[in-house]
């Protein structure tokens, strides 16, 4: 099963690499698939690559659902 996680772009360089934050964790990411990416944008992160862009409302809704799913697994 594949899972894409919403992440917020923190920084990026001219080579299409950058740092994103997801759930409080900052990781190095390949942003080259995202046209005109910039800090503050929300993306879907999968296997070290940002694969699509989404708006903040979509990102927050998805993160809330993932937290709810994780909490239900703990019960």
Strand content: 35-45%
Distance between the termini: 22 Å
How does CATH name the architecture? Roll
Q: Mind summarizing the main beta sheet?
A: 5 strands, antiparallel
Uncertain stretches: none
Shape: elongated
CATH class: Mainly Beta
- Main-sheet strand order equals 3-2-1-4-5
What does this protein look like?
The protein is an alpha+beta fold. The chain has one domain: SH3 type barrels, CATH 2.30.30. It has a five-stranded antiparallel beta sheet, covered by helices on one side. β1 and β2 form a beta hairpin. The chain starts with a strand and ends with a helix.
Summarize the structure.
This protein has one helix at 56-74; strands spanning 5-12, 17-22, 25-30, 42-46, 49-54.
List keywords for this structure.
alpha+beta, 5-stranded antiparallel beta sheet, 1 helix, 75 residues, SH3 type barrels
Q: What is the strand and helix layout of this fold?
A:
Layout: E1 5-12, E2 17-22, E3 25-30, E4 42-46, E5 49-54, H1 56-74
């Amino acid at each position: 099963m594949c899972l894409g996680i919403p992440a917020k772009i923190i920084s990026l360089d001219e080579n299409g690499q950058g740092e994103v934050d997801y759930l409080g964790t900052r990781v190095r990411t390949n942003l080259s698939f995202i046209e005109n990416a910039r800090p503050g944008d929300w993306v879907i992160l999968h296997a070290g690559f940002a694969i699509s862009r989404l708006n903040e409302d979509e990102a927050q809704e998805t993160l809330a659902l993932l937290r709810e799913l994780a909490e239900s697994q703990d019960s």
